[in-house]
Amino acid sequence: MTEKLVEVKDLEISFGEGSKKFVAVKNANFFINKGETFSLVGESGSGKTTIGRAIIGLNDTSGGDILYEGKKINGKKSKEESAELIRKIQMIFQDPAASLNERATIDYIISEGLYNFKLFKDEEERQAKVKEIITEVGLLAEHLTRYPHEFSGGQRQRIGIARALVMKPDFVIADEPISALDVSVRAQVLNLLKKFQRELGLTYLFIAHDLSVVRFISDRIAVIYKGVIVEVAETEELFNNPIHPYTQSLLSAVPIPDPLLERQKVLKVYNPDQHDYSVDKPTMVEIRPGHFVWANQAEIARYKKEL
């Protein structure tokens, strides 16, 4: 029986108040099993990063629950609870240039979490931990005395990964960790993430907009459109049997390596007006085992007929 590590129930995240209130995420429901890579996919501005930042506590939530190991973690927490969560949940940010302190050496950047949570007995142990993780991510011990601007984008992202993993977290939120990198470097970083998952038993929430990348790394995928999660399924199930029209349109845009097939491909354009939710309201429904779709009763009946 797989154990749920993270559970998100009816999550709503909004910004501003009154007439200026903007709801960025609504009715988000999903769970992440221990040891799996769960991907959140959608176009820019769909609310993917907003959800990731809410799980780690950087964004406040306006409704719903975020559970970690069965305990609610959004809302008020004691200092001890917050510290424990920061140690267990780490984030790898999208832009390695913006998320690293330009004035600090790599040694200090990686050690910051160790200092804050006193995760070493003495200076010797701290140095050993930092040297071990920097070597693990494919950099050299002599790089520790340098500064972020002396590295390429791919190397900076490796430093970001080292900074997150030196804390020995259980759960890592990877927010578009490869979108700022060259194609050749992307595969290296993805392989690095998979290697750490195998060796340390990590659980990932992988946030991305590129479905071909997501297929390579994910166990299960959630598709999000304008703050609403519209479909959740295992990776191959989602690619082979996309049910929601928005998922179908996203998959139709994935390039095919064969130029002849690519030319014959028909792009599907998603029109949100095709859903009539004025009376018959939608909910998250399990249409096939482990395959969930955001739909109302009329749509469920149609989707089931099409399967």
UniProtKB/TrEMBL annotation:
Protein topology in the membrane: Peripheral membrane protein
Superkingdom of the source species: Bacteria
Keywords (A to Z) from UniProt: ATP-binding, Nucleotide-binding, Peptide transport, Protein transport, Transport
Main location: membrane
Pfam family, one: oligo_HPY
GO cellular component labels: plasma membrane
TM spans (from-to): none
Molecular function GO labels: ATP binding; ATP hydrolysis activity
Cited SUPFAM superfamilies: P-loop containing nucleoside triphosphate hydrolases
Subcellular location: Cell membrane
Keyword Chaperone among record annotations: no
Domain ABC transporter: residue ranges: 6-251
The keyword Acetylation belongs to this UniProt entry's keyword annotation: no
InterPro entries per record: AAA+_ATPase, ABC_transp_ATP-bind, ABC_transporter-like_ATP-bd, ABC_transporter-like_CS, Oligopep_ABC_C, P-loop_NTPase
GO biological process: peptide transport; protein transport; transmembrane transport
Similarity comment: family membership: Belongs to the ABC transporter superfamily.
Record-given protein name: ABC transporter ATP-binding protein
Originating species: Streptococcus cuniculi
